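Before the break, one more example. Copy the sequence into your notebook; we will annotate it together after we see the structure.
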Amino acid sequence: MSLLIAILYFYVTPSLPSISAALNPVYCNDLYPLVAYITMTTLQNLIELMAALRHPQHGCPWDIQQTSQSISHYTLEETYELLHAIDSTNPDHLREELGDLLFHIVFHAQMAAEKNQFTIHDVINGIVDKMKRRHPHVFESRPEQPLSDAELKLQWQQHKQNEKKPSGRILDKVGDKLPAMMRAQKLQDAAAEYYFDWPETAPVLDKIEEEIAELRAALEQGDQAHVQAEMGDILFACVNLARHIDVEAESALRQTNEKFIRRFDFVVQQMQSAGLEFSPQQLEKMEQFWQQSKAVTG
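Here is what the structure looks like once it is written out:
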């Protein structure tokens, strides 16, 4: 939910009069220009629309039947569609996907309100309170000298740690709601704070080669559980390499996915133009078109 809540904080909360009044007006004027156009009325329109869709007698049958659990995978899809829109740098696409995700936030909040658990306003007030706590240099006392990036990161981590409830193991709560690859990077970052990390990139590359050798051995043994474990180790080591070369593994993989789509589409077009059927006998030809696609599609 952290991504969803952050979106509310940056794009919605400055529009609420009660919340905006609580913030220092000097800093409110410095927030993102887009928020000036967002009013309580527009948010209320969305809240009322969602309530109408969920009305027991007059609402939409599909919306009425849903629970937070049943729409959770749709929420995840919308989150990834938003990430794709961000990568596309298309503002119209970004606006649309932000709206889709905001709809899901209000959807979840409406279902909770119906159970007297919390409302959308509780969600917004909660994130505003949290962000104010984590930005004391903005909302409390301003330091004489601006904090460095390292100091800001440390301050942020300390506030997050203070907010967390104790868990059984020290890394249990680190990125526990994130997809596996994103969580792997978070786990490794957390371990690095305890100096449990390679000092440079070369040993990480060696570790990947070691894990590949172990996967080869597992494949020879024919033990699928062992194969899966070793495959996981390779992926984890590759994420660690991404950290060491300042690459976001998730973003890098999304870019590669898009690159694969472009190149494969080129292969398909070339095969069709040549009147060739896709078959194992055409692998050499497909490889030829694949190599061509690199120069044509990037």
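The radius of gyration is 24 Å. The chain has a mean pLDDT of 84. Try to locate both features in your own notes.
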